[in-house]
Each structure stands twice: as structure tokens, then as C-alpha cells.
Structure to design on (182 residues):
């Protein structure tokens, strides 16, 4: 069996569970890391009614807003579901090639974060679930208790709705997660 087939089987076998995720090394090394994982697990709920994938839902506080602003200023943020799908697919192909070339699999750990507004349609959250299944344990979804208009205004111009942002760099992901622990 080739390495690509093994990776596909591993993705299919992956059962989405926040408790089973491995957080970024920067977060795990922080004294608040274990408490943060417990908090994320305790505040998880299905992304949509009848959904099987759980996502932590958290209050939108100033520390999170600042982490998002920094990620935006440093170019570590992708806007929209379609943009996130393209970015994660390209990264997935690249990671698959690296695994195939090296002959070894990496340990799976959260390295990307989907930040979701709380007022999307059920169809939107179904698409997010699909994205999470495709990219397994390296992507975590975090649902903020905030409307898309508020999230759009924070980073872009007034009147812009933002339902989804992808933090696409592990330092930005770690900063966002540690902002939750403040």
C-alpha cells in the first residue's frame, strides 16, 4: 500500500473529537495549555443542528479581536470558505508529497484555525464540517459568539460580512488560542 493510500485511510478513520486534538507546540508548552484544551472541550457544541462535528464556541473578547488584527496585518489570514478550501487543499497536497517523498508520516497536530461567525446558515456549517473532515486533525474550528457584520467591520470596512476566516500560520493559531486563555 502506498503512502497516499495510507493517508487517505487515516483521514477516513479520523473521528472528529476536540478532546483528541493535539494543540500547537507553543500552546502545549504554555502553562495554560492543558486548561485551554479542557475549556475548549467543555464549550464545544455541534456546528449545526444534527451535526456530528463539535466546535468550541467562545465569547468574542478584545484579546481575540487583537489576535485577529495582528494575523490580518501580518498576512496570516485567509478570508472566506472558498479561500480556506483552496488554501487547505494546496497545503494538503504539499504535505502529502512531503510525506510520500520522506516515507514517513508526521504527527498530526492543529496548525490551522477556522474562525467562524455565529450567524451562518445551516448549509454553510455543513460545508465547514466537510472541510474539517477532509483536513482531519490539523484544522480546528472555533465559533465566536459574534455576527458576521461585526467580524467584517473589525478587519475590513463597515458593511462587510465575514462568516469565516482561516488563520494559516501556526504562530497566528497559537496566538489566537492563547488569547482565549487570557
Amino acid at each position: 500500500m502506498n503512502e497516499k493510500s495510507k493517508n487517505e485511510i487515516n483521514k477516513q478513520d479520523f473521528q472528529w473529537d476536540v478532546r483528541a486534538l493535539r494543540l500547537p507546540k507553543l500552546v502545549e508548552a504554555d502553562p495554560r495549555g492543558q486548561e485551554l484544551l479542557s475549556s475548549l472541550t467543555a464549550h464545544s457544541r455541534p456546528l449545526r443542528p444534527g451535526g456530528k462535528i463539535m466546535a468550541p464556541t467562545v465569547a468574542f473578547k478584545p484579546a481575540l479581536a487583537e489576535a485577529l488584527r495582528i494575523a490580518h496585518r501580518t498576512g496570516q489570514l485567509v478570508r472566506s470558505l472558498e479561500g480556506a478550501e483552496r488554501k487547505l487543499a494546496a497545503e494538503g497536497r504539499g504535505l502529502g508529497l512531503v510525506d510520500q517523498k520522506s516515507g514517513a508520516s508526521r504527527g498530526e497536530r492543529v496548525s490551522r484555525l477556522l474562525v467562524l461567525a455565529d450567524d451562518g446558515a445551516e448549509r454553510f456549517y455543513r460545508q465547514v464540517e466537510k472541510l474539517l473532515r477532509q483536513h482531519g486533525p490539523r484544522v480546528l474550528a472555533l465559533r465566536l459568539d459574534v455576527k458576521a457584520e461585526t467580524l467584517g467591520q473589525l478587519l475590513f470596512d463597515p458593511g462587510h460580512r465575514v462568516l469565516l476566516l482561516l488563520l494559516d500560520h501556526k504562530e497566528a493559531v497559537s496566538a489566537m488560542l492563547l488569547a482565549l486563555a487570557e
